[in-house]
Structures are given as structure tokens and as C-alpha cells.
Amino acid sequence: MSVAKPNRGKHHKTSPSRPTIVLSPAGRYLTAASVVVLFVGGGLDIPLLFLWGTVLSGMVLTAWPLTYSVSAEVRRGGITVRVGTLLARSGMITKGARVHASLNIRNRTARRWAYTRLRLFNSSSLTCEQPEQCVDLPNNQEISHTFVLSAARVGPAAIYGVEAVISGPMSLFQIHLYIPSQASVAVLPAPYSRDRYGSHKRSLMATHRPSSTGTSKRTGSGYDLRELREYQSGDAVNHIAWKASARRGKLISRVFEAETTSSTYILIDSSPTMRAGAVGKAPLDDAVNLAAYLAQRCLIVKGKVGLCSFDHAVLGFTRATQGSLARLHIRAHLFELNAVVHEGFTNTSKGKLYDVVGSYLLSQEGLDYRLPAQFRPEVAQDPWDETAIQQHIRPRVLSQHHKLRTATRVFGAPDNDPSLAALRSFCRLQNISVPYRVAIASSSGLQGLNDAIKRCSRDRTTRHTFILISDLASVRDADEFSPCLRLITQHRHRLVTLPVTGGFVAESKRRSSLEQRLAVLFERERSQRQQALLRSLRGRGVQTDLASALAPY
């Protein structure tokens, strides 16, 4: 007996706004009551109860086909929704700003839908103040409704669509109508608060003269004369000023100054502990804002600024430059930190990727790439037609390769499997989040920092100031910094460590008193361990305050 193979080149296209019918809370209660009354009346031989159970069941069975007829009317284009966002500068906003999503809802049917619930679906980077609201839809009219969202996290965000929940006849069933209407939003770092760290004052910038070239003059073998002083042991003979020595009757030596180029590299720890916490309150969110502020100030004070993010390996690298080009590259680097999709930094399987992409195409574009039931393997968890999905997404990924160029060139290495690389690129284009890798307790946490310092130290003609922004959660003691300090001392660089904290413990209103006390004790112990580590680092010559990070080198 031969079984025909499925045609992988074709797919079944469905409407993205196909409504589904479910029981309402009142319908569930009525159905449960009718079943109980029927069983009790029939079991105890009570005709009156049995009659009431039959009446209640008849109401549910009557509302079911009526709701189906209403759903068919809605499906034929009875309700349409357009989503528009009131954004400035081509969809770019800063963290903490608000987005107004305006919904234009048109009811083309001859029915008036009262108490229609609207629910907005958006990415986790945006927080909706009232994600679900009730409106009235008059017949043959168009109304407008507005949702207010706030940008909680830096990175790409999106509004995916709106779900309208319509009550059927007798309100026993509900019609769930999902209308996809995707709108992309770019959340950029906001200007960092100056009073976030007590050591930074407004008068701090006045003590440093701005330098647009990133150079500093030091004593050395240059060509500019700095001063004349008495001869000291070790001075070169050709630096002796013989005419000045004859006038003064003692040896006078010339002191020259050399111009050295210095730059600043901001090192951001992007480990799983930095990403732990509520959206917008994780240590990495605080680090992104602080890095944006430091880059802005260092471009004025020092000139050349670069950025390097790391985890167990180097995640992204931006070479130190100056001017508006450096500001643009650093902003793009910070924007991509919460949109990592590469294989070495994420925790997802091949089946999960196909499930995420297939579900997205089904809900947003109405493309059903699921295999028929008779062709699905018995043990398979992902019933998706992988070949058809690849044929659909590959042209889109190739056509928008210029948009992915920054992410693929700067962040991580591409996948070994081209098909998985295309899936991850599609997730990045459509702002689909991929789970980041989990923390490994046995990792030292400083291997990525060593790699980042080596990557930044390839330009040996300049001196660098490394500003490390990390929660230091994976560092056990100061001895683990010894390889980093030796590498920095070898190249005459400087290290400044700025600790960050955030909503490390996720907030929950349902915690018990014991859980709250344990969370407070854990946070206190982590803070004490961090302060002890910082004292040890200060004893080894590492600065740990913001003023030293902004001071000229």
C-alpha cells in the first residue's frame, strides 16, 4: 500500500482574521449548571430538575448555530481595523517615551456590537497602560480608539495586531477576531540621568577642557619644547642646552613633550545575569543608558570612543572613532543588544525556531504551512513544512540583507546551517524575540572580558581607557581580574569599573512574606559581595567611580 507524499511546494492560505468561537464565562457557567441539573434530575428521578436542565441545555445548543452565523458575517469583512502610530522621526522614540497607537475600526455590518473588548498585542519592549478596553461599535460606522504604550526597553519593538472579542447572541459565546496590523518601533537610549550616581555633578564637565582630537601631551621624546630645567641623572646628552648652561653656569637640560593619542572603550557585560529581571529594570537596561551617556560625554571630553559587548565571548565590537559617525555606530550597537538571535548566544532548538516562524506566518499573514495530520510523524513536536517555510522566507531575507548587515557583521557569528541562519534573520527582521542563553554556574565570567580587552587592544599605537559596566555577579574574587590587569598594564591602558544594579529579582505582588524576606536577604548579600569586590579592585589600582571614567587620560 503506497501513501502519497504531501506537496511541499504548495500551502493552504487562510484569512489572517479568521474568527474563532469560544464559550463566554456566562456560557461556561450555564453549560456546567445544565449538565449538573440534568444528571441530578435524571439520577434522582426529579422531573422538574430534569426539565430545567433540558431548558438550559437547549439555550446553549440554540446559541451555538446563531453564533456561527454571526461569525460568518464578521468573517466576510464586517469589521476592519487599521493601526497607526503617532511617532516622530520615522518610528524612533527614546526609552520612557510614550507611543499612541490609534485604531480606526469600521463596522460594515447591520448590527451594533455593544461591549466589544479590544486587546492590543505588542512586543515586551512596549508596555501598554490599558491592554484591554471595551468599546461600542455602531453599525455602518467608523470609530477611532487610542492605546497608550510606553517604551520600557531599548531595542526593536513592534505592535503586531488587535484582537476584538464580540459577544454572540444571548452572550453565551464569544467571537475572537484577530486583525494583524504590524507597526515597527525603534526604541533608542534616553539621555542618562545626571544624578543617578552621586559622584557626578554638573560642575564636573567644567574642570575638563574638551578635546575633539582625543590627544594629550605628556613628557616624552617629541619635538615641542616643554621647559628648561637642571640636568638630572639619566637625561640624554643631546638634550643639554649648552648656551643656557653657559649663561647659568650649570648644566641645563631641555624637556620635550610628546603627543599621545588616547581613546575610550566602553565594555558592556551582556551575560544572562545582566538580563535577569523585569522588562526595563534589568541591569542591562541600566547599563545601556549609562553607556549611551558615557559615550556622549567622552566624545566631547576625549574624542575617540568605541564600544564592545561580551558574554562568554565577544558579542559585538565597534571601533573607536570620533564625531557623529561614532555616535551613530554606538547607538546602533546599543540598539542591537536586546535583539540577539545568533546561535552562540541564544537557547533555542531547530524545532522551536520553525514553530515560532510558522506560528507567526499563520497568525500575521494567514499562511498555513502545517503538515496534514496523516503526514506528521508520531513523535514530532513541530508539524511544520520546513521546505515551504524556507521557500517563503529566503527571498525576504535576501531582499532585506542591507538591514541585517550591521547585525550579521557586528554581533556574533552566523549559524553553520544556512537554513537556521535564514530563520534567525527572519526573526530579527520581524522583531520576533529569541530566548537568550541560560546562565552557567561553573563559568568564570571573565573569559569574555579577556577576549574583549584583547580585541580592543589590537591598535597598539594608542592608550585606552576601558570602562567596564557590569554587575560582577559571575566574579568570585578579585584574583580573577589578574589576567585582565596584567594585559592592561602590559599595554599601559587604564581600567575603570562601574557596577550597575537593576531589578535583579523580578517583582511579583503574589509573593509570600517568606519569599519577600529571602529576596531582600539575597539582594543584600549580593550588594555586600559587590562592594567587597570593588574595595579589592581599588586596592589594585582600578578606579570605580564615574568621575575617574570621564577624567582625561
Short account of what is shown:
This protein is α+β, with helices and mostly antiparallel strands. Helices cover 35% and strands 27% of the residues.
Task: Please tell me about this protein's structure.
The protein is an alpha+beta fold and 553 residues long. Helix content is 35%, strand content 27%. The strands form 4 sheets. Strands 2, 4, 6, 8, 10 and 11 form a 6-stranded mixed beta sheet that branches. Strands 12, 13, 14, 15, 17 and 18 form a 6-stranded mixed beta sheet that branches. The longest helix has 29 residues, at 47-75. The radius of gyration is 32 Å and the shape is elongated. The N and C termini lie far apart (80 Å). The model is unreliable at 1-12, 192-213 and 503-509 (pLDDT under 50).
